[in-house]
Amino acid sequence: MRKSKxxxxxxxxxxxFFSTVFIILTGRYMYIxxxxxxxxISLEEFAKEKRTSSYTINSERGKIYDNNGMTxxxxxxxxxxxxxxxxxxxxxxxxxxxVVDPKKTAEALAPILEVEESVILERIEEGIxxxxxxxxxxxxxxxxxxxxKEQIEKLNLPGINFQEDSLRNYPNGTxxxxxxxxxxxxxxxxxxxTIIEEITGIAGxxxxxxxxxxxxxGYISYQRDKYNDRLLNPNEIITEPEDxxxxxxxxxxxxxxxVEDVLSQVEEEYNPERMTAVVxxxxxxxxxxxxxxxSYNPNNPANVENWxxxxxxxPFEPGSTVKIFTWAAAIEEGVYNGEEGYxxxxxxxxxQISPIHDHNGGKGWxxxxxxxxxxxxxxxAAAKLAWEKIGTExxxxxxxxxxxDEKSDIDLPGEVAGEILYNWPLEKITTSxxxxxxxxxxxQIKAVSAIANKxxxxxxxxxxxxxxxxxxxxIEEKSPNIVGQPISEDxxxxxxALMESVVVGEHGTGKKFKLEDYxxxxxxxTAEIPNPNGGGYLTGRNNYIFSFLGAAPIDDPQLVxxxxxxQPKLENYEVGSDPVSFIYRNVMExxxxxxxxNPDKEQENESTVFEIPxxxxxxxxxxxxxxxxxxxxxxxxxxxxxxxxxxxxxxDTVIPHERxxxxxxxxxxxxxxxxxxxxxLQLADLTNLKLETFGNGYVISxxxxxxxxxxxxDYVAIELIPPGEETSxxxxxxxxxxxxxxxxxxxx
Length: 748
What we know:
InterPro entries: Beta-lactam/transpept, Beta-lactam/transpept-like, PASTA_dom, PBP_dimer, PBP_dimer_sf, PCN-bd_Tpept. Keywords: Membrane, Transmembrane, Transmembrane helix. Residues 721-748 are annotated as: Disordered. GO terms for molecular function: penicillin binding; serine-type D-Ala-D-Ala carboxypeptidase activity. By secondary structure, the protein is α+β, with helices and mostly antiparallel strands. It has 4 domains: 2-50; 53-249, Penicillin-binding protein 2a (Domain 2), CATH 3.90.1310; 253-296 and 307-602, 3-Layer(aba) Sandwich (Beta-lactamase); 610-654 and 658-721, Trypsin Inhibitor V, Chain A (2-Layer Sandwich). 31% of the residues lie in helices and 22% in strands. Strands 4, 5, 6, 7, 12, 20 and 21 form a 7-stranded mixed beta sheet that branches. Strands 14-13-25-24-23 form a 5-stranded antiparallel beta sheet, sandwiched between helices. The protein has a 3-stranded antiparallel beta sheet with strand order 3-10-11. β13 (274-280) and β14 (287-293) form a beta hairpin. The model is unreliable at 603-607 and 723-748 (pLDDT under 50).
């Protein structure tokens, strides 16, 4: 009886417990059925989410073009490979859609993807063991080219699939890389936490115009089964992507190619630390070409030596190219008399200020005119103009008027302005010839546009227009913008004439920059490099930044160009203007022809180019007379009656100023003072002299006196000094520039 009561009691408890649980579960079920929610989460939405696939539809990044419509940057289709490894995906199918034989699959894929078989095999086997639906292959399976994709598809490997992706491509490699920049795939987290990859601009135009170029991605969603296949009624939703806008640059592919080619040649031959070159239309401000060395390939921006676009981002002491603006200021201010004489060599304002020295060691050239001082690149002339004629405060006003104290505001990222050091009297003087203060090539190019454009300074730019990639409609287009007029048209013309004298004048430092078919002018510069360890400037003939700022045709310049070469490795017979002039001549001459600018030296060339006739064994006086009639530069070796040797032969063509050496049958030693090392080497070869040189550059002394008879194997010794320091102006083809005595002329 007692047992029965206990049993009944426990049964009642259990019935009550299970009834309570049943009521709770039933109530919960009825609540869920009625509301469709669990803990505030909609079951319908949850189910949709679980059986709905959502993908981003990538927009196509806008293209970058040159001014003629040549593609410089575009999105290239690439593919991501993945493998389906779950066997049940192929149930009831005639052909399997999963990886059937992992080893065979790995063996087939490895040589195409250029990886070890184990890399592929391990990923597949790991996915199978983990009961995953599909696997990817990391770096080995990403960015697969169209060609490799098609090759893999021909293998008919079950389970291997591809997803289309994009990779930014630059078809011209290093071409204008510091302007175009580069973009790369980077991960981005969306608001919902989803991680996607998108192409993002990192440098150059890709970075500057990133928001316009990248466009807006689209979106697609659809309902699927557990194998990711669409349902018959997938409720598909599509938001179309908006492709990015296209950017057209002012860069001209032909001119930019010229710049790239010659920079590469000079880089190969001279191995300089740095090089820059920029070409601009001074009438409009359009930058037609811009190059730097070292450069990089934006398709593979790894181990890059120089990320900086030195043309706009690396200010340095420019040297004598600044004298263009010093003379312009003096002329505009009405205080310049080009024929006025002044004493060269050194100049000291007072005992408290260190003296200024001309670049030939302070020797100077006696009393010369200010016009000649420009041709010879006299530091003393620049200093006297700034201190005595213009006045340092007024001179600073002109520096500001030329915008040399601020950025050029070119439409490129990363521009850095130089700094005008103008606190102390010595700094105010040295700025006049380009020492102490710093500037970028672009600041100087902008300033010189005023000289080349009748006094009107234009804004430099590289973005020509922005175009809607879908409709072709021009969204924005730039036009020339005059941003100042620091000088008058008369002053600009006067300065252009002075610039021409640097190239064609008797004492000009830029004779090597002469063009064949066009008149040109400019200003050479040889800037000292501050010692990175402190204590003044670097020394040695290679430790300079050699430069040239020029324009052509000189009467109405259509192009202006700046070139700089830092610390080239020069041979003893070479000078700093050799690599700089090689770049300038090749780019400027060919660019003007390409632009169909009419040559303005055509008639001059017809009359000055001279073809050498037969001269061997001919009468000396007759040959000399014939050459003199054609204004040729002839040096006769000896007083013999016949010509027995020469550095030219029948059929050669020569131009004025090109030295012709004629050896007679009675050779005597000529005066070789002022000769270049090349000319002396030719003389030694023609006369079989044994030559020993001391120093480099141009001859300042010789051990055999002029007129002394010379015989084969005679010993001749010559002493040379760097170009621009020679006392004779006869062959002053280059400027040593700003090589002042550092103890007396320090800017520290």
